[in-house]
Structures are given as structure tokens and as C-alpha cells.
């Protein structure tokens, strides 16, 4: 992988970065701000993230305010490239919402989806029918966890 690479983060990666800016997901957002990665989002992604960050039980559990949520969402809009044309081409019956992340990656020619979602990660498993189908249809599209991406970046970027 030669940075800057085009990437799509799923909602849980954005949430993890929001909760812990120093964790793996937060480090990836830092890589985006340093132009090591080029991040793409869509209205769907921002709406899903807004929904998650608006849940009172999460705000209570993680001690965040509406103001902090608004600032974070504003920063993402500034940091990422907004994509409006995302044709629906990928069917994923197990979790239809996750199909949008694949659709977005395909629409922007991203080579990487960053996720901790078990359903999305299962698509890289050639031992399953869904995984075999995904890997044969989209051989150039990786789905990796934040720590896996950090390891890949560390191996390809010059030391600071």
C-alpha cells in the first residue's frame, strides 16, 4: 500500500476515534489529517454516525456533550472528502447497512475499508460463500481493522 490511499471508515471506527483519539482509530484519523490516507464519507455515513453519537446512553456512558459531537462532526466534514454519488451495487443480506460502506469504497475507487464490524470483516474470509464471492468480485478491496492498517502504514511510511 503506497500512501496516500483512498479509504473508507465504517461508523464504529469513527466512534472509536471520537471516544479515544489516542487509540488505533484515532491514530488513523491523525494519519488522514497528515495526508497519509485520503478519507471518503457520504451523507449516509455521517447520518449513521450522528445517530450513534446522539444516543443518550452512549453520551452518559462516555461522558460527551452535544457540543463535542458537533465539533467532531464538523472536523470530519473538513477532513474527509464528501461523496454524493454512491450507486448501490453490493448486496449484503446479513447486514444491509454495511453494504453502503462497500458501495462507497467502490464509488470512490478506495482500496481499503477500515472496520471492526464482524459482518464486514467476515467478507475477507475465503472459507465462507459470502467471503469467496466478495474476494472474487472485488480482489483489490481490502477490509482491515485499525491496528492492521496502522501496521501496514508503519511498514510503508518513512519514519518521523
Automatic annotation (TrEMBL):
<feature type="domain" description="PIN">
    <location>
        <begin position="5"/>
        <end position="122"/>
    </location>
</feature>
<dbReference type="InterPro" id="IPR002850">
    <property type="entry name" value="PIN_toxin-like"/>
</dbReference>
<dbReference type="Pfam" id="PF13470">
    <property type="entry name" value="PIN_3"/>
</dbReference>
<protein>
    <submittedName>
        <fullName>PIN domain protein</fullName>
    </submittedName>
</protein>
<keyword id="KW-0614">Plasmid</keyword>
<dbReference type="InterPro" id="IPR002716">
    <property type="entry name" value="PIN_dom"/>
</dbReference>
<dbReference type="InterPro" id="IPR029060">
    <property type="entry name" value="PIN-like_dom_sf"/>
</dbReference>
Amino acid at each position: 500500500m503506497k500512501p496516500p490511499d483512498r479509504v473508507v471508515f465504517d461508523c464504529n471506527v469513527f466512534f472509536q476515534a471520537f471516544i479515544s483519539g489516542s487509540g488505533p482509530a484515532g491514530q488513523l484519523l491523525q494519519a488522514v489529517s497528515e495526508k497519509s490516507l485520503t478519507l471518503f464519507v457520504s451523507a449516509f455515513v455521517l447520518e449513521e454516525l450522528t445517530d450513534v453519537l446522539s444516543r443518550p446512553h452512549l453520551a452518559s456512558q462516555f461522558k460527551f456533550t452535544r457540543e463535542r459531537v458537533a465539533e467532531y462532526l464538523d472536523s470530519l466534514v473538513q477532513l474527509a472528502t464528501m461523496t454524493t454519488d454512491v450507486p448501490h451495487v453490493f448486496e449484503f443480506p446479513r447486514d444491509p447497512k454495511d453494504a453502503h460502506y462497500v458501495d462507497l469504497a467502490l464509488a470512490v475507487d478506495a482500496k481499503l475499508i477500515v472496520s471492526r464490524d464482524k459482518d464486514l470483516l467476515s467478507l475477507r474470509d475465503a472459507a465462507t460463500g459470502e467471503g469467496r464471492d466478495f474476494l472474487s468480485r472485488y480482489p483489490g478491496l481490502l477490509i482491515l481493522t485499525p491496528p492492521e492498517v496502522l501496521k501496514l502504514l508503519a511498514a510503508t511510511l518513512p519514519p518521523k
